[in-house]
Amino acid sequence: VSRIRRAAGIRTALGAVVIVITALVLVGVGQGSPGAQIPISPVAVTAARARIAALGAEGRAGQADFASQGCNACHTIAASGYSGRLGPNLDAYLKGAPPAAIRQFILHPLTVKIPGFTHNLMPNNFSTRLTHDELKSLTAYLHAAAG
Amino acid sequence: VAAPADTPGRAGPSDLIRVLLLPADFERPAFLAFGAAALALGVAGYFHGHLFHEGYAQVSVVGPLFFLNVIGTAAVILLLIRGLVLPFAAGALSISLGAIVSIIISHRSSFFGFAEAGYQTTALVILISEGLAVAFTLVGLWLSRQALILQLRSGEVAS
C-alpha cells in the first residue's frame, strides 16, 4: 500500500511540475522576445498612407502582393496595419532606401544581415514567385510606405 | 452481419475506449522509452513556446498553433504520468508528426501563407526533438505490445 501511495505521490508531483512549467512557458517567463519594435509617429503613418494612396492602383497592388506573399506575417508596415515582428520593421529598415535597394532586399534577402534577426529565414525565391509587374508594384509600395 | 456490441466475449466501441483509457502496467524498457519520448516532446514544446514569444505570435494561424503545441504537449505528458499509454502514444505521434510535416511544408512551399527559407537553431532543436519523440514512442509501443494486447484482450473478456 505504501508503494502505491508513493507512486501516486510521485505522479502528482510530476504532474504539478509539468503544469507549472507549461504555465511559465505560456506566459513567457524565461522566454525570448521579438526584435525591438521601433515606434513610428501618427504623423509619419498618415504621411506614408498618403504616399501609398498617391501611387493609385500600383500602390493597392503592391499592398495586396505584400499580404498575399505572406510578407505581413513577419514584417511591420504601420501605414497598412501590418505588425509582424519576426523580421525587421520595414518602416525603419527601408526608410530612405532607393527602389533599387528595396528590389535587392526582396530578391536577395540572404545577402542582407540585420543584427537581432536570423538572416536566413526569409524565402529567397521571390524572383520566381513574383511577376515583373508584381515586383515593380511591391517595390513602389514599400518605397512609399517607408518613405 | 455484424455482431451486437454487447455480445458476451466481444468488445463494443465503448468497451474498447474504456480499456484504452485504463492505466497500463508496462515494464521498465517500455517505461524508459515512453519517458524519453515525453522528454523529447517536452523539449519541443518548450522551444515552440520560446519561438511563440520571439515573434511567431504575430503570424496568423502558425502563432496560435505554436501556443496549442505547448498546451497539447503538456496534456499528452500528463496522460503518460497518469499511466494512459495508448492515449499518450496517439497524442505524441499526432503532435510530433504534425509539427514535422508543418515545418517541412513551410520550408518547401507555404503553410497557411507562411514560408521560411532556412532553419534557426531553435527550429532545428524542435525538428530533432519531435523526430526523437516519434522514434521513442514507436519503440515504447513495440516494447509494450504484449502488455497492451493483454490489456485489450482482458477488456474483451471482461465485457
Quick overview of this protein structure:
The complex is a heterodimer of chains A (147) and B (159). Chain A has seven helices and two strands; from the N terminus they run αααββαααα.
Salient structural properties:
heterodimer; A: 147 residues; mainly alpha; two-stranded antiparallel sheet; 7 helices; 56% helix; B: 159 residues; 6 helices; 72% helix; disordered N terminus
What would you say this structure looks like, in words?
The complex is a heterodimer of chains A (147) and B (159). With 147 residues, chain A is mainly alpha-helical. Helix content of chain A is 56%, strand content 3%. The longest helix of chain A has 26 residues, at 2-27. Chain B starts with 12 loop residues before the first helix and ends with a helix. The model of chain B is unreliable at 1-7 (pLDDT under 50). The A-B interface holds A 11, 14-15, 18-19, 21-22, 25-26, 28, 31-35, 68, 70, 73-74, 83-86, 109-110, 118, 120-125 and B 42, 45-46, 49-60, 62, 67, 70-71, 73-74, 77-78, 81-83, 110, 113-120.
